[in-house]
Write a structure and sequence with these properties.
mainly alpha, two-stranded antiparallel ribbon, globular
Length: 265
């Protein structure tokens, strides 16, 4: 019984990295807590890394690019070409929003995979549903803004009804079904964006941390060698997942914005 409790404590201790910890406590204003947590700090760190990377690359740009400039240009071409190429001139101003989302999510995921001492309270912000939901809400607001701005309230909402060509006798009763279904679809877009990124991030970290906790508890070669090998392989896989999740989030954001821009087409 005692051994079981000790084993549990080691695993729970490893999972402590998934906990939001307050660093600077600030009194609440109503239901809003403005305290600075480790999640906030690591979001700041990721944002600073993204900003400095592109800022330094831009300041040092020259005809014969170095490795930093080449990487920045590749990311820019990737965002303006592959990710947002189909959105057209009407959505050109959102190229950099998509690039920022992609870069921030990728850097945040990668920073979360770097081993860190417990003293600096490690955390991966994308393993927090509030963080992923915040980014998804931004995409949702941009999407709806584009829809209402370009087509007007009546024109945009009309695209939520039955498609053109449906007889009026059928269109009116079908609109009772089409409109709420489309409305729910719009509301579920940010939900699916946030849950997908959150779920995939926390799942990978959870597996790695559990294995590390078992290694710390059962300090024997029989456990440590296969567990360590698994952690190394899983970490490599998580690096790949970090890119894939940033790509999927950004690509779906483009699709949603594009759908609103060309809603009447």
């Amino acid at each position: 019984m005692l051994l079981a409790e000790e084993a549990e404590s080691k695993v729970v201790g490893a999972l402590h990295e998934l906990n939001v910890q307050t660093i600077v406590s600030i009194p609440k204003v109503g239901p809003i807590d403005f305290s600075i947590t480790n999640a906030v700090v690591y979001m700041w760190v990721s944002a600073v890394i993204v900003f400095l990377f592109f800022y330094i690359a831009a300041k040092r740009s020259k005809k014969e690019p170095d490795g930093l400039q080449t990487t920045a240009e590749l990311l820019l071409d990737f965002a303006t070409g592959h990710l947002t190429g189909q959105i057209g001139e009407k959505g050109k101003k959102y190229y950099y929003l998509i690039l920022t989302l992609f870069s921030f999510i990728l850097v945040t995921n990668l920073v979360g995979l770097i081993p860190k001492p417990a003293g600096i309270k490690p955390y991966t912000p994308t393993a927090n549903i509030n963080v992923t939901a915040g980014m998804a809400v931004v995409v949702f607001m941009v999407t709806q803004y584009q829809g209402f701005r370009r087509h007007g309230a009546g024109g945009y909402l009309k695209t939520w009804m039955t498609p053109p060509g449906v007889p009026k006798a059928l269109g009116m009763p079908l609109n009772v079904i089409f409109f709420p279904v489309h409305l729910m679809g719009e509301l579920f877009k940010p939900l699916s964006l946030s849950v997908r990124l959150f779920g995939n991030t926390i799942a990978g970290h959870l597996i790695i941390l559990v294995m590390i906790g078992l290694m710390l508890e059962f300090a024997s070669a029989i456990v440590i060698i296969p567990a360590a090998l698994f952690v190394v392989i899983m970490t490599g896989f998580e690096i790949f997942i970090a890119f894939i999740q940033a790509y999927i989030f950004s690509l779906l954001s483009v699709v949603y914005i594009e759908t609103a821009i060309y809603a009447s087409h």
